Amino acid sequence: MNLIQLKKAEIKLPEIKKDIPLEKSPEVEKLIINLKYGDSFDFQPIIKQGEKVSAGQIIARTENGFTLRAPLPGEISGIENRFSSLGEKTPAIILNVEKVETSPVPISNKPPEKRASEIINQLLSTGVNTPWTFDSELSGDVVKKVLINCVDEEPGFINNRMCLRNNYDAIIKSLNILKILAPVAKIYLAVDEADYSSVKGKFPNNVEVLSIPYNYLDRLEHYIVNRLLGFKRPAWKKYKEYGMVVIKAEDLLSVYNAIYLRIPNIKKRISVFSDFMDNPKYIEVFYGTPIRDILKTLNINVEEGERVNIGGPMKGFSQFDLDISLTMFSDGIYLKKDTKKSFVENYPCINCGSCTRICPENLQVHLITRRSEFYYFEEALKLGAGACIKCGLCSYVCPAHRPLVQYIKFALDEATLEKQNELEE
User: Fold this and answer.
1) Could you report the per-residue pLDDT of 403-421, keeping only the tens digit for each?
2) Which pLDDT score, from 0 to 100, does residue 29 have?
3) Digit-coded pLDDT (tens) for 389-398
4) 116-261: which CATH architecture?
5) 242-262: string of b/e by CB count within 10 Å (b at 16+)?
């Protein structure tokens, strides 16, 4: 399957028309549960090496009380530094899994909460990632628009689409929770254009359903938000500055499970896709499951020279080790078959301008990335590095195979670090 077709005005994606069955979680002997995810989470372990844990037991938490729970029962064999799917070496809990049949156990039998503060506390306790979980300023009448995103950005990924199709009742019931968290907000539902007519009739009239075409740029969350706002929002501006929050369909289902079923958030659904597959695989995995176990369950062999990405072909990160595990931010695995060359060098820019022509934000990508490559981070910022939306199109079309998105991210991270160091001094 051709993953993406580039044209002057359109970047078309293949339409996946059929329903894909959800595969069961793979059997695992070991879970590697990362405790730090970029700037989003920094968990502190509350268990020790050698300790026995049960499924659903709290094993780590953040400063604000957001919890991380053991997906399966077992023994903590260690807490050590491991590479994450983002290429960062971070602390991780190593859990040797007991061979027992288990299913998520409700953590209480209380009725659903009816106040916003109670709901947020329950989401923190069950480890559900939502905009309200980490930002106390979103309470009350601050939020004017809520976008439930049921489309998947990456070619070949189907997580949010299948989540909506298979869980209409739960998603609709979760609207009651959103109305408590954002009482004055207008609710929008972004769905694939092929699902628009069937979805529109299932939701209340006060929910506006948006039809999203099979065009890569139209499916990016950044541009869906711009469509709702009615103007171009700078990439560095937070949604809350415009009175808006965005929640994915899969996360909203986790909200339903936490509030109505009292089930902790210990696993997620991912897509597994390759350009040799006609349709993606759809599988539920526990947090911390290594790539190796997922591919084994799906009978997929990785041969020498083939690439494995966590994330899709546009935004994903290539992995060097199949023991690297998936986190709550991992939407899927993409396999690049028949890779004849492995580009291990930073090839020089040939100044062709392909990256600049394809950039939807009209950035001078070739200039920004060359500044970043040679550590001129402030100059990269002045050229507009902060406006990058990390769509990956520049890297996709680069004939020199340069890691352009990574260069821009490098400039932004280093510039932020320099400013933090200046403040500390």
Assistant:
1) 999 999 999 988 876 664 5
2) 94
3) 999 999 989 9
4) 3-Layer(aba) Sandwich (3.40)
5) ebbbbbbbbbbbbbbbbbeeb
